[in-house]
């Protein structure tokens, strides 16, 4: 076997450039799939390049310039004129939050979603579906679950009411043993118990996300150590809960979040790298439902517009944003749909003013990093899981072009192909 000492300087340089994988006169490297001449949006940065992507054993083996590598591929795709983005994440979903129903997991792939963060459901049902997806018994995205959520009182059986240190310890131990990626708290959790939940979860190496408990100011939630906050509406609810009695508390909350007075909040969120999932898509749905089929009142229109403006304010302040939809099987009639709603959420983030390339990052690598799996997945890079989407239109022009899906791959395996 040739050692590094036997290899000349030029050869070493060549090996460094391509990570020792192919080219420079070496024998072709066997790979499962080679996607050639594709324009790559890696997700980890806003620049693009045209090159070849080699995949083996479900992971990206190398991303090279055209003709740079030498591969012997079981399957080759000439992707000239096509665009590659990372598999998308729905960072806030509920796929098994009812006792009997369940979302059609195959629908996620049709819209480029290859991973989800499930933020509340029945532990046993989630474990079962995770097993079936992992074994290939049923089609579905990669599932990263938080299982049951912690609350001060419950409005669903999959929640766990915790009102004492002993109950919190027991619940967190159970979630840790189940392999929860994060622990979710809800707004009825006692404010006095939030620091304990955070500290015990962190002792297990698990992050805490969720609603800001009522009675806790958003700045305090940040300083206490929450790792994520779900829904912009959670900020509004928390501010209303700590405000003096007034008929305009909600309006005052919006004014605060859009003013310079909120700079310290956004600085805390950005400085501590706390992830915020705006779930913009749910607010037009709520407004439409409350309008009961009638023309939407101006106050509802203003409410939705304010949510979008706050999301952009957070982006401007370098807060780590995620893309989630709150899609759920909990209700008989769902206004959000698996996969499709995620693309609508991305459109709303773009329409709010966030640059397109950053929206792609929000919907991919940001989500993976937020739950601690960024080294494994979330972007197109050597060594990471080969989750990606091929498009016929340039997503850099608009995230609406993500609807031009040609094919979707999960762990290097095709899971959806367009009939067009």
Describe this protein with a few key phrases.
420 residues, Urease, subunit C, domain 1, TIM Barrel, 2 domains, eight-stranded mixed beta sheet, four-stranded parallel beta sheet, disordered N terminus
Overview of the structural elements:
With 420 residues, the chain is an alpha/beta fold. The radius of gyration is 23 Å and the shape is globular. Strands 1, 2, 3, 4, 5, 17, 18 and 19 form an eight-stranded mixed sheet that branches. Strands 8-7-6-16 form a four-stranded parallel sheet. The chain folds into two domains: 4-85 and 380-417, Urease, subunit C, domain 1 (Roll), CATH 2.30.40; 88-370, Metal-dependent hydrolases (TIM Barrel, Alpha-Beta Barrel), CATH 3.20.20.140. The chain contains 14 helices and 19 strands. Helix 6 (218-224) runs parallel beside helix 9 (263-271) and helix 7 packs across helix 8. Mean pLDDT is 91; it is low at 1-23. The longest helix has 19 residues, at 298-316.
